Amino acid sequence: MAVTDVLRLKTRSGFEGQNIYFYYNHPIQFVCLAGIIVARTEYVWRTVLILDDGSGETVEIVVLKATSPESGNRASEKGTVTRAPAMKAAVSATDSAMQEERHHVSSRTKDRIDIADLVPGAVLKVKGTLSTFRSVVQVQLERFTLLRDTNAEMHFWDEQARYLVDVLSVPWSLEPEEVDQLRREADEEEDRIIRAKKRLEQKKRKAARKEQRDQIRIQKKWEKEEELRRKEAAGYTETGKKA
User: Fold this and answer.
1) Where is this region: Disordered (predicted)?
2) Which domain holds residue 19?
């Protein structure tokens, strides 16, 4: 896709929270773009790259950061996030040492990725998921490839043009057999969820009955022991009186 196409993607009711957008009636979850990085800004928990593909628009490529497991207490890190200011100012050079323990990760798999080469002037192809921030579509980086020469760039433009003509420009539709198959799969998934809920409820009821039986058994045992103690106490009292 071109950046201009990405920025024109629309959302539809019924798909809220799924990060699924639409190009006409084509559902889009991943996009692939190519261009040059014109800016890079470091934030506490992410790096934002500005990608220009020459289509007349630019788009933000967001690269998430995670904290290394050995870098300290997780609770304190979460607390730091909570106390962070709402306005996302760029991290200064004096703050860079504080960020060394954080590494970049892909958007979905959370695999570690190295974006040291992604600086202004670098030409690359990126793939990522979509999200919206302040009514503007962003790309959450999943993976990337540096384009080392013009031939690689031209190959991407050719792929992009073919995909636009052969796929995106053709109305997306499903054959009746595919619709039936998807409906069966949806029904099976719904049945599976219902069965799982029933099993969970049965397990909870079984555990509750077992707990109730244990309580009754403990109560009876306590009453039996209490009765025995009363009889023993009465025996001691009777023996004392006879003495």
Assistant:
1) 224-243
2) 3-173
One domain for residues 228 and 144: no
User: Per-residue DSSP letters for 160-229?
Assistant: HHHHIIIIITSPP---HHHHHHHHHHHHHHHHHHHHHHHHHHHHHHHHHHHHHHHHHHHHHHHHHHHHHH
SS3 89: coil
Interacting residues of 133 by C-beta distance below 8 A, sequence separation 6+: 60
Of 42, 93, 90, 37, nearest in space to 65 by CA: 42
State if pTM tops 0.70: no
Average pLDDT over residues 156-162: 89
> Which percentage of the chain shows pLDDT scores above 70?
81
For residue 54, is it left (φ>0), alpha (ψ between -120 and 50) or beta?
left
Could you identify the residue written with the tokens 């996009």? 31
